[in-house]
């Protein structure tokens, strides 16, 4: 396979037009067209740039007998799986589908207490002739139903395990050109990721403001319960904003790490996720138990900011202990 054919194949494999390749090479489209039509040959500096852009060796480009798109990294094992561009794209799609299911499940679990607070507020204001006991019963049933539906979404994620296992759990290497494509995608996506992450964090931070304001300047359990609903809905909105982009960002990084070996950053993330999976349900249970026992919702909300600070402290403590063990 001659150089011109290799350039065409590599360019099409990553889905670029001649104009896009020319822009990355800082040459005219006509130059790329001449290379691919064998009317001219790129100089040595252009060959080096082509090798960098397509993540191939100069030896592969220059030697006609090198036709197989083999890995340059001879240190990789024979059992290493090669991931093509199509497989990498499908991995991103499946990770986003998993994220959508998980986000729905989390939002249902988070919002499961909203009906309870709503009916308790109605009972407190003597509307619909609801008593406190009836309102609590309806609310508890609503919690059980919504949590059950949320768990069903979590269970549905199992159908994607086999599709994403290769990149998540196996040693792999990317086919030529795939790394550069996803590096470019990640660079463009980072702006969206940073923007939505900032908005989501802002929603988390200000979610306590309405409840704090009402608790300080207004009385009445009914209005406090309604502000609790606002708090929970704002947290759910933050999760809806942050979770999908975080999943997509992590998926890009999982592909670009180009192996199944965990980096220190990924290990920290997994430890934090395991802690969060135990910590936040426990905190929610404590909050509901304390609130329903005392019915002093104007005070029990304080558990959320305190719990958030404590969670950050626990993550920091885990990092400190890990460094000491190392």
From TrEMBL:
SUPFAM superfamilies the record matches: lambda repressor-like DNA-binding domains
Taxonomic lineage from the root: Bacteria, Pseudomonadati, Pseudomonadota, Gammaproteobacteria, Alteromonadales
Identification of the protein by name: Transcriptional regulator
Xref: Pfam families: HTH_3 (PF01381)
Keyword vocabulary terms for this entry: DNA-binding, Membrane, Transmembrane, Transmembrane helix
UniProt KW Ribonucleoprotein keyword: no
InterPro entries (UniProt xref): Cro/C1-type_HTH, Lambda_DNA-bd_dom_sf
Ranges where the HTH cro/C1-type domain occurs: 7-61
Top-level division of the source organism's lineage: Bacteria
Cross-referenced PROSITE patterns: HTH_CROC1
Species this protein is from: Shewanella colwelliana
TM annotation in the entry: 101-122, 134-155, 197-217, 223-243, 275-293, 299-321
């Amino acid at each position: 396979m001659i150089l011109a054919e290799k350039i065409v194949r590599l360019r099409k494999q990553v889905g670029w037009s001649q104009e896009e390749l020319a822009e990355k090479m800082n040459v005219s489209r006509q130059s790329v067209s001449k290379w691919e039509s064998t009317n001219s040959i790129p100089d040595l500096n252009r060959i080096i740039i082509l090798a960098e852009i397509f993540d191939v060796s100069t030896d592969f480009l220059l030697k006609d007998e090198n036709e197989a798109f083999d890995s340059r990294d001879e240190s990789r094992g024979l059992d290493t799986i090669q991931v093509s561009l199509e497989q990498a794209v499908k991995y991103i799609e499946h990770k986003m589908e998993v994220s959508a299911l998980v986000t729905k499940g989390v939002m249902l679990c988070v919002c499961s207490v909203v009906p309870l607070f709503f009916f308790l507020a109605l009972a407190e204001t003597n509307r619909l002739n609801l008593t406190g006991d009836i309102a609590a019963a309806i609310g508890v049933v609503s919690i059980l139903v919504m949590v059950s539906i949320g768990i069903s979404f979590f269970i549905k994620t199992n159908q994607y395990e086999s599709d994403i296992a290769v990149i998540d759990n196996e040693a792999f290497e990317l086919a030529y050109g795939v790394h550069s494509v996803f590096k470019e995608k990640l660079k463009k996506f980072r702006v969206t990721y940073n923007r939505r992450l900032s908005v989501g964090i802002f929603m988390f931070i200000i979610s306590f403001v309405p409840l704090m304001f009402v608790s300080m300047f207004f009385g009445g359990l009914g209005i406090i319960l309604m502000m609790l609903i606002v708090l929970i809905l704002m947290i759910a909105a933050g999760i809806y904003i942050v979770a999908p982009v975080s999943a997509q960002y992590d998926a890009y990084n999982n592909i670009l790490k180009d192996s199944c070996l965990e980096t220190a950053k990924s290990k920290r993330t997994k430890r934090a996720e395991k802690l969060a999976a135990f910590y936040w349900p426990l905190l929610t249970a404590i909050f509901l138990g304390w609130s329903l026992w005392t019915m002093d919702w104007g005070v029990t909300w304080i558990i959320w900011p305190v719990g958030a600070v404590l969670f950050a402290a626990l993550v920091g403590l885990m990092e400190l202990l890990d460094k000491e063990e190392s």
